[in-house]
Amino acid sequence: MEAIFSSPPMKRVMAALPAGVELYLVGGAVRDALLGKPSYDLDFVLPAGALPLARQLANRMGGAYYPLDPERDYARIVLELGGSKGGGDRIKLDFAGFQGAALEDDLRLRDFTINAMAISLRQPHRLVDPLGGAGDLVARRLRACSPASFENDPLRILRAVRQAVDHDLLITNDTRLLMRQASGLLGQVSRERMRDELFRILEGRNPRAALEILDRMEVLGSVLPELLTLQGVEQSPPHIYNVWMHTLEVVNKLAAVLAVLSSEYHEETASNLMLGLVSLRLGRFRQAMQAHLAEQLNPDRPMRALLYLAALYHDAGKPACRREDEAQRIRFIGHEQESEQLAVYRAGELRLSNQEIERLRLITRHHMRPFLLGQLEGFPTPRAIYRFFRDTGVAGVDICILSLADMLATYGPTLKQEDWAHHLDVIRCLMEAWWEHPQQQVSPPALLNGHELMAELDLHPGPMLGQLLEAIREAQVVGKVSNRSEAVDLARSLVQTGLDNGIHQAD
Known about the structure:
This protein has 507 residues and is of the alpha+beta class.
């Protein structure tokens, strides 16, 4: 318990706390302290006056003050702690007045017993635990605080699944029954709150396990209804699973691939040959990929979680596209476009940002591109690499990572080492281009702009102009032009011979 009071944010709160103020640390931070885990986002309660106290502490600590819900006496402080481990630089401190007459009444209104414990900042060695949350932690069980817990807030159904998986807890039978009884109320939860909890699940310890529990509890359809259509949809070889089981396995393999590419991965502890090859061939991009996955298209949602959402929807269009050919082989022609539409629709319903929606769209639309490049003899050509990133941009990195999980899930134990090594080489070529040779293979510097090209060739604005500039960029990539004069000559030749024929000849 002492560790939580020695953490940087807690030290700052203790130093800034006015004398005589009755303040309690509650919720997840207390739970994590008992589990020996660090906490950087802290929740505090006091009898009343949370807003003025939070404002005063924010001024003293140099943090930003946000009155989140003045009617409920609820405010937040955001601190910037440079170099803090595990939680990043942005630390949230939440302050709220008692929701009951006394502290124990407040705790009884919380979601689960493991989150219904408190510690007084004036008496840090005294644990307030009216519902036996500490005992539940020892017994590894998750128990609702009251029979009305899920009726009061149906989102707690998702939260129960997340916390059970993240903390390796067993949901008690009574709590499971309460969850099922309240499952029909999930439709009352705002889309924003549903989205935030879903992303916490996708960022969690084992997203596949959480999704399977949601499915068994018959609440998956309230969160991601499109996924229900995947169940029981069979696939022809090389797929070894139906579409739903394949999707779950992609999520599982994605977690494994991301673990291999994390900064904490150690080759000496690796036991899986296929994953070891990932480290061998792509290990030098580890730092760059971690920075990429930490990117936040939204301040509260990292790219890593969005990639899991893309994994869930990359084959969502298959049921609508399922066909059997004359040999009774199952085909899903056009499923990429259908998956793209379903992913974009769900992202809109979840109120994702425009940037997030566009990234998700690109990943689902182009998720097959690395496989198609791998079917060509040898390594991808400079032109093929350029066109891949021209169409995908930075999403191409996400597509590369997803394709690794997709291939592992498609073949399972039938995957041949040589086929896997070849796919890794394709991904390596793409990542080399993106991170090591961007000016040569991804985005060559412009040799001239549209106005200059119009002046040189006496052209008018129109589609041809953009086609000519694109042809020049491709010619740069393959080494056919390297300066302005050569670019103008190429454009003139294409205009004279006919743009389509000229480009074909240049290929």
